[in-house]
Structures are given as C-alpha cells and as structure tokens.
C-alpha cells in the first residue's frame, strides 16, 4: 500500500492513458474526443451544481 501511495499519480495517469488508447483504437479519434468533451462538460455541470448547494 505504501508503494501505491508513493506512486499514485503516475500509476493513475498511466492507467488513464491505457484506457484512452484503447478507446481511440476501438472507436477512432473523433468519437473518443466527442465522448471526452461531454464527460468534461458533465463533470463541470456536476461541480457547479454541487457548489450551488442544489443537492443538499
């Protein structure tokens, strides 16, 4: 567990890169980019609504 805590960010970014590469190889660059854009927009809306206190 100490090893994971020490190298948490490199491991997570490596895993995210592998997943992104699999999506690009499977679906193509523009479809993957489309999904990523909507994921970022959805996360932004969720963060905004949480900051406004809508879910409390």
TrEMBL record:
Pfam families assigned to the protein according to its UniProt record, in alphabetical order: DUF2273 (PF10031)
Protein keywords: Membrane, Transmembrane, Transmembrane helix
Transmembrane spans: 7-27
Protein name: DUF2273 domain-containing protein
Organism (species): Streptococcus macedonicus
Organism classification: Bacteria, Bacillati, Bacillota, Bacilli, Lactobacillales
